[in-house]
Amino acid sequence: MRSIGTRLFVILGITTGLVWLSAVAWIFVSTRAEIEHVLDARLMEAGRMVNSLIVSQEIDVARAQGLKPPFPARVPAGYDRQLSCQIWSLQGVLIGRSEGAPEKKLSEHRDGFSQTVIDGETWRVFAVENAALGVRVLVGDNLRIRDRLVNDVIRGLLLPTLLILPALAGLIWFSIRQGLAPLDRIARNLSARPASDLSPLDSADTAREIAPVVQSLNGLFARVAGQRERERHFTAFAAHELRTPLAGLKTQAQVALASGDPAIRDRALRQIAVGVDRTGRLVRQLLDISAIEAGERGWTNGPTNPGAELKALANELPHAGKALSIAVAPELEKMRVAMDPDLFRLAARNLLENAINHSPPGGTIACGLAMNGADTIIVIEDAGPGIPTDELDQVKERFFRGRNRAPVGSGLGLAIAELALEQAGCSLLLRNAAAGGLVAGIAVPATLVRGFGKPDASPVSKPPPRLPEPTRVPLRLP
Fold it and tell me: What is the value of pTM for the model shown?
């Protein structure tokens, strides 16, 4: 049942039907009880009236013996002979009876109400005993006729209600359609819009119940518009960044083809190799950003061994011919973090690449641990020129390349690292070291630290030979 209107109609129809059936049952029970109470009162009054007539000698008991019938009753058509009366002597002799009354004794009960079955008919009987005159008056109702009377009364009450049901169903359907009209207007508005129209819906005259839907749609439109704008800028920046290395590749290829000097040709080919590396890295970084933002996969909560991952990356990443040393503190191998390994590897790869690109030849990149309040900081420090203070707030922006830019950089590394860490519930901290160089910190909240166990018996990869022992890098933030 996909239609809200149909679902509401069914729900209201069933609810109304249950209420109606409950009302019918209540009317039936209450009306039946009331009618039976009235009929019992009539029986009692009839019995007492006959007894008073006997006492006042308006009915002569002596003369009544043998008369047929002594006092016939006249009742409305269809209910004739409903009320029957018998007068018995206390010795068990029938003195008189009304027309249609059975010859058998209506009840053996001496006084008050009783119920008797005579010839298959059930009778409701009221008895009045007059000991002074030696008689007993029995007045009875045939319950079959009484039930028919009750049913006719109830039928007369319920028949108009049955005739109202179709009109009630029509009113319910009309009310539902009117109530859903604001949703229909919103649907027509949205279906008539072009895909490029992300303007907010008018919520001035919106019903209070529909307002949250309109506000949510307007919020969605705003987010989509913002995302579209970011993608537009991102595409423009990416096209610009790719155009530069591609133009350089074409130029160097033309130089290599046109030159007959082996030295010039070799230098052009080396420049082509550097340009291909830079372009490949840029494309990989663009794909990384797209994958994180699109949420193409679900991220796990680890656990991740930061030390093992950093050692593996230290062996995988090229050092650009700088003979660099990458040292990983033993404490990092003992640490376990509730973070997706791919997200940590993506952030750490970009931070290490950034450190490699800015480190001088023969320099050391130290990976260690520090504390910043309750957060555990995984620190990556290089010995490069650092970042000018006025650019620290900008270096995480995409395609931003500051004054101390590296020749092979694209301005995406720190942005990717921050995006991956935010996805994992962590954050990226940056500051310049006192002795020069950049200190990049992965701030891991205490809730994601799963303790410090023993180092892995079989690390992911062996550390590079003759690496100096790393030291803890203090990270003091304002």
Answer: 0.47
